[in-house]
Batch of 2 targets.
Target 1
Amino acid sequence: MSVPTNLGYTADHEWVLVEGDIATVGVTAYAADALGDVVFVDLPEPGTEVTAGAPCGEVESTKSVSEVYSPVSGEITEVNAALESAPETINQAPYGDGWLFQARVFAEPTDLLSAQEYEQMTKDEE
Amino acid sequence: MSEPASAPRATALREIHEQAGATLVDFAGWLMPLRYGSETAEHRAVRRAAGLFDLSHMGEIRVSGPEADLALDYALVGHLSKVKVGRARYTMITSADGGVLDDLIVYRLGGEEYLVVANAANTATVAGALAERAETFDAQVTDESADHALIAVQGPRAVDVLAPLTDAELGAIRYYAGYEHTVADHPVLLARTGYTGEDGFEIFVRPADGAPALWRALMESGAGQGLVPAGLSARDTLRLEAGMPLYGQELTADLTPFDAGLGRVVTFDKPGDFVGRAALEAAALTSRERRLIGLASRGRRPLRRGQEVLRDGTAVGTVTSGAPSPTLSRPIAMAYVDGDLDTATGTFSVDVRGRAEEVDVVELPFYKRSA
């Protein structure tokens, strides 16, 4: 599983792509694989304010419920509505069509892990 | 339940599972495949074609001797002396107070020989109870779990997968029958039993080290039939759709078979006393305290074990098993409710972490294969 080098990562297994003041957030392939088949996603409504490091939603798989932690502080601008009917997209394309939400960030996130650091962290977890 | 302090035991098939990329988990003290890839795909493969399961964690206890039949009549709630050689019976073992210690499948291998198959977590308890209860009979009880591997082939293509590997006339093996046969040159107990709601076979391999070669032969034979290896996650959703109880969830030592709505497994009409008889006779007379019902959600959020069931906003029961159903494409659950509850009227919901998810009360099983 290759970790895209253009993204930032959190220890909670989210990825984030910041373009201007818009951050796109998803869960990593490592997390999606560990969860098993994702069957339900609960995300904040557009307009909701989220705080970096705080839970803002849930991802449920066949066997478990996991919280989604926002990697950024900001305001939700868009959620991936396609996940409502096709949550398995998170397993199929975690870094692509399986993205979770976009937020207008209040400040550039500073404490993200690089792809290399994240990969090392997941290797250490195994 | 206490967790075993030692590392989980590996089955004879561990290396094969690892090579197949399985996610292995500690289940009842055994390192078992949870899934190989997508558990939903494995579930669907079993419904449409066939799946191959490693069930070597299950316990095999042999009861043999001139009074093996009478010993089992005394030790279990069923009438095992009446089971014909080559047939199997779903039954239970209870304590003297009628609480279920385990649910079992008992195969009659011969006039004086039975194989009792117990859940992994309960094998030691069952073997101990059987040995104690058989003491006054001319019968021997041997826990042979470590010598056995168990492989299940389940699904509508199970016969096609198995047929090229055996001379056994598979069409003649009825549901809940099992005989000693040869499969892929291995002497096995070949039984038409399962826990998926599909046609299929369970293959008891002894000694267990024959299992890898047998597994490979089955995978090869099933390559053109859509056979896939399937893990415990798929097994759980398959049995839930089939409305089959799981010990520890629908069945516990706090419940009698009557509480669980499975009083039909208790045979009072057999000679002699049996462990639990007095308590179970009383339980059969008193109205059932609870009833197992099926729920299907109108929403998408999965229902989970332990969640509260509400009728018009009032708590009436608890979910014992819940999962998204791949076949019905909606979350389903089994739940215990008060025995006299009116389930025909009212609005039912399940409290999913503070949100009331509206559900329909549906008949069990959720899924029944077309004959």
Target 2
Amino acid sequence: MEILYEIRPEVDFMNSSDFVENRLLDSLDIVVLVSDIEEAFGISIDVNDIVPENFYSLETIQELIERRGGQI
Amino acid sequence: MNLQYQGKRISGVLAVVPRNEVKFDDEVQNYNFSVKQSMKLKKIMGYDKHRIVTEGTRVSDLAIFGLKYLLDEGLIKRDELDALVLMTQTPDYLMPPTSNVIQGKLDLKPNMVCLDVKQGCAGYLVGLMQAFSLLEQDAINKVVLVNGDVLSRKTSPQDRNTFPLIGDGAAVTIVEKDPEKDSQIFANIRMDGSHRNALIIPAGGLKMPSTPDTAVMVMDEEGNSRSLDHWFMDGMAVFNFVVNEVPPMIKSLMDFAGTGLEAVEYFMFHQPNKFMLQRLADKMGVSYDKMPYNIVEHFGNSSGATIPTNMAFNLGDKLLDNSYLTCLAGFGVGLTASSMLMGIGPLDFCQMIEY
């Protein structure tokens, strides 16, 4: 959550979904998000996982981190 | 679609970059984002310096400058040039073809073919294909391929998605019949016009002529400001296209050529940004030293000119004495993706000059 709010402090991510379609995150935000997640959780996100579906909501981002071996 | 060519070679490469260098650090204030986030992007995407033409410079200026240099240095001769193929998205005019402008200003012979083709980031590959096809003719022995764009003139300086990454530039490649007639070149290409709006300049053509209304700057939901006269990029769509299309395309190319990635000495890919190229290299299992990704960092993404710029900057003199099995790949507007496997070198010249 902290990472997301650092990228887009004006967005209420808790009460939002479909972040990409609703333009709450653009492609460069996702680039920064992926990089920050990798650094914070010590994981590597596969390029195939950088798709809008994985950045749909807080839950899908959490699932992605856990799937790549990160602990939240 | 698989394509195969025989008995053709690249004999020289000259990259032309504008002398005017702009630093990302000096532009950060133009974007409606925090400096901290922009600095993160700088590191991840490889934004640092890019070359931007000064007001009024056209693609023909860069091309003529490069060709005149080669003529003056005796590296090419006017009479030898049988065709001029210009790949650009930023022509001088809607009509006449800018290739004819270049031909006329350089006083090249009338007995030649001049051709403009509108292509962007895959323009080096598509241009080589055009050159190879022209060289099938008995009357054509040497083709000048020019890739060039001045996209800064169609890019909003307040659009973080596009302006930091672009660079203006041109490249001249000499393509000719290979004395070794059995040399093989393998290529493939895919087009996806259903995603044509992912990279688009909406206004300025006949569908939506430029007017005072199309020049009005509008801020989008993400905080970028641009007008309809400016270039727009759907970054997510382009990223997914590249990631999904390019690795299997390269594998298909290797299968077609009957070889494997391990045999390839260099991967000279189009240079969209550091992040995308590193991820592509990782996915393909290719080491970074074989796939340079530093052109955006030093010069910016000059569309179809990035591959020859990459060759000149990262290989340069090495290509004067050596031959390398090289995999080329270009991907972008259209959407288009193309790759090619060929031996490159020894070349007569491989260098970079400033306009």
